[in-house]
Amino acid sequence: MMDFDSELDARQLACPLPILRTKKSLSQLSSGQVLKVIATDKESPKDFAVFCRQTGNELLSSSEQHGEFTFYLRRR
């Protein structure tokens, strides 16, 4: 488990809502802070990788357990 500054529960949300809510949550953090996101959308791993590549935020970790995906993102 990784340290984080804020957590977003995006379970049961379909694309593009997990990414949109992540974008909003990241905007409330300072540069270098970490956001933990939990999502159930099966496309989430791909979506978060693309989102981070496009926005310059860092995807620190991505894991899946029992149909739930956990992501740790560092704000640029």
Please report the distance between the alpha carbons of the first and last residues: 21 Å
Strand content: 25-35%
> Helix tally?
2
Please give the order of strands in the largest beta sheet: 1-2-4-3
Mean pLDDT: 97
Rg, Cα atoms, Å = 11 Å
Question: Count of DSSP E strands?
Answer: 4
What percent of the residues sit in helical stretches (DSSP H or I)? 25-40%
Name the helix and strand elements from N-terminus to C-terminus, one letter apiece: EHEHEE
**Secondary structure category:** alpha+beta
Main beta sheet, described? 4 strands, mixed
Low-confidence runs: none
Morphology: globular
Summarize the structure.
With 76 residues, the protein is of the alpha+beta class.
Structural write-up:
- This protein has helices at 17-27, 44-55; strands at 6-10, 34-39, 58-65, 68-74.
- The two termini are 21 Å apart.
- A four-stranded mixed beta sheet has the order 1-2-4-3, with helices on one face.
- With 76 residues, it is α+β, with helices and mostly antiparallel strands.
